[in-house]
Amino acid sequence: MFAKRFKTHPLRKPQTEYLARDKLAWLLVMQALLILPLLFSLPFWLWLVWAITALWRTQMFRGRWGAPGSLVKTLLALICAGGLFASYAGKTGTEAMVGLLVCAFSLKLLEVNSARDAQLLVFIGFIITATQFLFNQSPQAAAYAILCVVLLLASWRSLYLTHTQTTGLRLKRGAMILLHALPIMLVLFVVIPRLGPLWAIPTQQTAKTGFSDSLSPGDLGNLALNRAPAFRVEFSDQPPAPSQLYWRGLVLDSFDGRTWRMRDSWGVQPRNSDETSIKREKTNYSVIVEPHGQPWLFSLMTPQRVNNPSNSILITADSLLMNQIPVAQRMRYEVTSALQIDWPEPPQLHKMQRDFYTRLPRDSNPQTRALADSWRSQNLGDEQIVARALALFNREFTYTLQPPLLGEHSVDEFLLVSKRGFCEHFASSFSFLLRAAGIPARVVVGYQGGRWNPVENYLLVSQSDAHAWTEVWIEGKGWQMIDPTAAVAPNRIEQGMNEALGESDQELIANAWQSSQLLYQLQLRWDAANYTWQRWVLNYDTDAQEGLLSRLLGGSEPWRLTLWLIGLGLAGAALFAWALLHNNQSTELRPETRAVKKLEHKLTQLGYQRKPGETLRDFIQRVLYSEPQFKTGLTNIAQLFEQVAYQNRTEQLVFLEQAIKQFPR
Fold first, then answer.
1. Where a domain ends, among 148, 176, 200?
2. Sign of the four-CA dihedral 222, 224, 228, 231
3. Host domain of residue 344
4. 61, 117, 144, 511: which one has the fewest Cβ atoms less than 10 Å from its Cβ?
């Protein structure tokens, strides 16, 4: 008998639970919005991969195309792998791994048939949302990620709905789920030990904005048109005067006749501790630097101490700050700098070093060499030659963003012919002139000045503040900072670049933000908001956590945290229980029923109470028996209610609510 039953009812494959149209549409929209911000940092062909899979999945739903077989899916996977290999030249890294995840996220759509498959796609979507912060950690990116999470929760919830809901209601329910989880998220953010942010993982992105490790005529002039932020600085005490705000980035000490470059050997060596010098005018400050894809950082004059959470910054022999890896994401570090150093014993420059810092290419700029020789033949000292060179710049030169092009002997043409240039022209020619006179000199590039933001009291240094100056070796004093641009345009140092340029140059850098005081104030406040976000959210490290917990709880010991978490848990449970006990049952009613409750309230004020179990139409008929003047309005309300409640015509809900709102007019 059992065998007969087995033959009559053979084993069958489980029937596939295909997704409804609205659920599939939610998955497609969810995928598109989650992938969109990643395409600004990943190869654009990944968007084409998603478009093809979305089109194929849609055609499968419509019955036009069949499901791809194993061979087709394998071929698509190999194409994606080959595309990633070609895009990243065979290198593995963060971008390649995220690109691989996006490919899997897109191709998985072809295999989604049931709610269980779609749920897995939603889970991958949460990981995709987290990867967005690898490339952008701004407040805008955080707001977009929150919207993505709401969409993911709404999509997840919609997979198990047995009745249709409007888009707004689905999003509202998803937002409510996130809102309920928000207190727990905030508590965990505050108390969980800091292990380093996800976005601190190095990336393969190249340099974005800023100067490079070489300097040629015109390089910094191009940056002057770029208003993008370079870094922001908060001082512990009173900030230094504008004339002292020279942010050193690189020392360029090798010249080939046109371009200055950074030496590869000495300058990157760690600095030995020197306790013989006397540091004066020390200042403490913290810097939040924008990503620029290079290892160098910025500090005032001579940094004495530097600190960051990962301890990855070293002070070089040339008193520069270098990070162990390129700065691919925003990072914060604290510095103590000495703006002035006195030497009890005269510092020495070895002969090999002196030869290097006075080295010039043979047969380069002969007229400038002749000028330097004539000064040296007059038995002038080093400081006298420096003063004469500065006087030359002060008399005959013009500061401009539009200098003429220079030929082979660029220094000769600038000093003796054009006499018009930007800061790199002055620093380069000044250093060449001093070297030609036998005085050790080198070019320093970085930033000068900055714009004070009074909203949060910090200094914003932009790319347009990029600057070049000279450091000269003076016997008995060591390396001395001398800025030839200050001799030509002192307003550039004291008041910023805008005050030093002529009318024609002002037109090049003019923008709508500066022309309107209102827009300028909005820009300051928006930048202050970004700074606050970076300081208190992204830079919430172990030290900040211990300080906050000490202020809130009196300490950060495990037992103290445990007691507070237990207390918060009990308080949350009590609040949740109270909400369940006092929850208004109307929130569980269908929308058309809630609307009718408002009508009942209005009729109650007229003296008519709906009886238990009485239908709406019977109730309205009873009211009309005594109030026939309401026949048109109440009859229309009854018809609309029946259409929404019994015919599932949800589009009539708006008209029902409007009719009840206008009753009894």
1. 200
2. positive
3. 214-514
4. 511
- What average pLDDT score do residues 593-613 get? 87
User: In a 3-state reduction of DSSP, which class is residue 478?
Assistant: strand
532 and 456 in contact (C-beta within 8 Å)?
Answer: yes
Catalytic residue among 80, 423, 465, 527: 423
* Active-site residue (options: 292, 409, 425, 467): 467
Q: Does residue 7 have a pLDDT over 60?
A: no
Dist CA 439 CA 381 (whole Å): 10
The SS3 of residue 498 is helix
| Res 459: pLDDT | 94
Last residue of a domain, one of 497, 514, 531: 514
Assess if residue 135 is contained within a domain. Answer: yes
22 catalytic? Reply is no
> What token pair was written down for 266?
């000495």
Q: Among 290, 292, 300, 295, which Cα is nearest to 268's?
A: 295
Considering Cα of 421, then 423, then 424, then 425, what sign does the dihedral take? positive
Position 234 scores a pLDDT of 94
Q: What is the pTM of this model?
A: 0.70
Concerning whether 219 is annotated as a catalytic residue, the answer is: no
Look at the block and give the residue holding tokens 């062909």. Answer: 45
Residue 202 has what pLDDT? 52
Residue 471 has pLDDT above 50, yes or no: yes
Maximum distance among all alpha carbons in the chain? 125
Evaluate if residue 6 carries a pLDDT over 70: no
Coil, strand, or helix at residue 233? Answer: strand
pLDDT tens profile 203-218: 554 445 567 788 887 7
How many whole angstroms separate alpha carbon 402 and alpha carbon 58? 56
- If asked whether residues 251 and 397 sit together in one domain, one would say yes
Please report how the helices 558-581 and 167-191 are oriented relative to each other, as an axis angle in degrees rounded to 10: 150
Residue 559 lies in a domain: yes
Residues 254 and 194 in one domain: no
Can you count the helices (H) and strands (E) in the chain?
Answer: 25, 18
The tens digit of pLDDT for each residue in 642-653 reads 888 888 888 888
The residue from 253, 412, 465, 483 that is catalytic is: 483
Catalytic, 409? Answer: no
Please say if the pLDDT value at position 263 is more than 80.
no
C-alpha pair distances (Å), 106 with each of 101, 103, 112, 498: 9, 5, 11, 50
Across the range 435-446, mean pLDDT stands at 93
Q: Which residues contact 568 (CB under 8 A, 6 or more apart)?
A: 187
